[in-house]
């Protein structure tokens, strides 16, 4: 299958942003506001079942800070905390502390060279995406992507398919011609719900999740000297467990999926 476009999730897929990026930025925002809320690495793993930073804070308050919900201006508090969290997160990105995951740059460059369109479909705030791309790939990198589907442009976040449907509409392409790359069960559900074939690359927060329906589940896309591993592959695939040559995912391997 020759893909006309690759649609990338951001958090956990383009870069490992959650544990050492979004999580400490939330904690900085809580501290700045004088709240004694602290999201440690383990708790954050539980909170990640809810996508979207504002939605995640609502979920946390419901389960861990029920009194906070009673204050009349709770909605405004969440919005202010989210603005502060975004400011802290952008600072972290600008300090250059969050690299792209293995193989991402290589595959993006190859797709561009071959005329395969690129899109982003993410729950996170648009500015977080453009800053990550600028920091890791250079100032023109956001323009490599024909479509940037991000944040609140659709009201229903992943696992709802809406963000992928929005991106496909903007691309003007049918789902069958495109491949999604995701890292989480929520993201996979969103992509499958939009009718997209999906490749999953896992990280420490997602590797034990249920990836039923994915074309394949890989450790990452692989770099020279650091080959990727195939963790699972759909049995009806033509080459169900065949590793990419030298453990490097490239367009030719993606087309065989
Ligand atoms: C990403 C998210 C986001 C980020 C925070 O999910 O869930 O909420 O953690 O971003 P996915 P914001 O990778 O499935 O898109 O705080 O900007 O919402
Ligand atoms: Mg993700």
Question: What does the model show?
Answer:
The chain has 257 residues and is an alpha/beta fold. The chain folds into 2 domains: 5-16 and 99-256, Rossmann fold (3-Layer(aba) Sandwich); 18-94, Orthogonal Bundle (DNA polymerase, domain 1), CATH 1.10.150.240. The protein has helices spanning 18-32, 41-47, 53-64, 74-94, 104-113, 126-137, 162-171, 185-193, 251-256, and strands spanning 5-8, 117-121, 147-149, 178-182, 197-201, 216-218, 230-233. The chain has a 7-stranded mixed β-sheet. Helix 6 links the parallel strand 2 and strand 3 (147-149). Helix 3 (53-64) crosses helix 4 and helix 4 packs parallel to helix 6. The longest helix is centred in the N-terminal third of the chain and has 21 residues, at 74-94. It starts with a strand and ends with a helix. The structure holds xylulose-1,5-bisphosphate and magnesium ion. The site of xylulose-1,5-bisphosphate has 18 residues, from helix 1 and helix 8.
Bound compounds: xylulose-1,5-bisphosphate, magnesium ion
* Major β-sheet strand ordering: 3-2-1-4-5-6-7
Biggest sheet overview: 7 strands, mixed
Fold-level CATH name of the largest domain: Rossmann fold
How many separate helices? 9
Hey, roughly how much beta strand do the residues contain?
5-15%
| Low-pLDDT segments, ≥5 res | none
Write down the overall mean pLDDT. Answer: 95
Q: Compute the separation of the termini in Å.
A: 8 Å
Going by CATH, what is the homologous superfamily of the largest domain?
HAD superfamily/HAD-like
**CATH class descriptor name of the largest domain:** Alpha Beta
What percentage of residues falls in helices of 4 or more residues?
A: 25-40%
Radius of gyration: 18 Å
Please state the overall shape, judged from the principal axes of the Cα atoms.
globular
SSE sequence, one letter per element:
EHHHHHEHEHEHEEEH
Say how many strands there are: 7
Determine the structural class based on helices, strands and strand pairing. alpha/beta
Oligomer: single chain
């Amino acid at each position: 299958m020759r893909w006309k476009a690759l649609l990338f999730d951001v958090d956990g897929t383009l870069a490992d942003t959650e544990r050492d990026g979004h999580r400490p930025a939330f904690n900085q925002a809580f501290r700045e506001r004088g709240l004694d809320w602290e999201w440690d690495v383990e708790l954050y793993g539980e909170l990640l079942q809810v996508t979207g930073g504002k939605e995640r804070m609502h979920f946390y308050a419901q389960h861990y800070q029920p009194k906070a919900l009673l204050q009349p201006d709770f909605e405004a508090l969440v919005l202010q905390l989210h603005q502060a969290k975004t400011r802290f997160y952008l600072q972290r990105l600008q300090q250059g502390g969050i690299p792209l995951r293995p193989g991402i740059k290589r595959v993006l460059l190859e797709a561009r060279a071959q005329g395969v369109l690129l899109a982003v479909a993410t729950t996170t705030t648009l500015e977080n995406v453009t800053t990550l791309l600028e920091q890791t790939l250079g100032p023109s990198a956001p323009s490599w992507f024909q479509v940037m589907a991000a944040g609140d442009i659709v009201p229903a976040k992943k696992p709802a398919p809406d963000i992928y449907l929005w991106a496909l509409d903007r691309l003007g392409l049918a789902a069958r011609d495109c491949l999604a790359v995701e890292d989480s069960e929520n993201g996979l559900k969103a992509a499958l719900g939009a009718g997209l074939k999906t490749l999953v690359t896992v990280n420490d927060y997602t590797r034990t999740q249920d990836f039923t329906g994915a074309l394949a589940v890989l450790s990452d896309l692989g770099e020279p000297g650091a080959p990727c591993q195939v963790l699972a592959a759909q049995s009806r695939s033509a080459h169900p467990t065949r590793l990419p040559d030298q453990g490097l995912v490239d367009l030719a391997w993606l087309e065989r999926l």
